[in-house]
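User: structure tokens for this one?
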Amino acid sequence: MDIDGVFEGGGIRGIALAGAAAAAMDAGYAFRRAAGTSAGAMVASLVVAGYDGDELREAVCKADWPALLDPMPWTRIPGIGKHISLMLHHGMYRGKMLEERWGRLLAAKGVRTFGDLSPGSLKLVATDITHQSGVVLPEDLRQYGIDPMGFSVARAVHMSAAVPFVYVPVRLPHRDADGEVVLMSDGAMASRFPLEVLQPSEGRPIVGFRLSDDDATHEHVPIRGPIALAIAVIGSGMGARETLPRLALEPGRVVTVPAERDVFDFDITPQEARQLFDAGRVAAAEWFVTNNPETPSVPLSDRPDS
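Assistant:
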């Protein structure tokens, strides 16, 4: 059966989301459309490109995750380097390796631009920090004078995953505004779990994939200096929602995926990546055994105890 998937942002924990997507395919579901933010954008792009469950495991578990933090030249200077990179480039890491790696994975399935995908099958969320607005890729590229179908999917993934202060914002020339360059950054600032970008399709359910670290221990982390403060602020925005109660009702069906790892802990070994992927796959497999995405959600007002 075809389903539409929505994948939440969450840094390195997106590996567990990929495992959950694999479980959906193991259960006989195929992703017709997918939407995602940040790490969710990385997963959404692969499932729409045609990766099956085992190929997903191979792709994300063999990725050189530490190398995706490719430092700006200033960042390597001990002590003051990160501060200089933030002042000069608004970020410590380029994001070039992330884009190149995802470009190779997508190209292996014949996908380079949005024109290589079925129309409307992939929607990624980024944040235009120049105009302080959320952007849905590829369709919103028109407002910058850019042909959506000719735009690189890997570049869009890079935009969605460019965490502020960590990655340098992606520069996007505004072709309808002479000389203007727009800065694009992490879509989680606009919508971390972008259910709203997929309109329901009659006969095809939407399944959401959210991260949870409910069993994790939240340790006190000392904050010393502007770099630590910036990372703590962004990390809180990406992780704090898991410590709060879930909404009583969310559109579609939502699979909660365990991922007990810091969002910025990219220093992950292939073995640890496999463990994170497999934990997401097992948890989602259990969900699909006891839940039927084809059954419509019951509105809160219609529930017996409401």
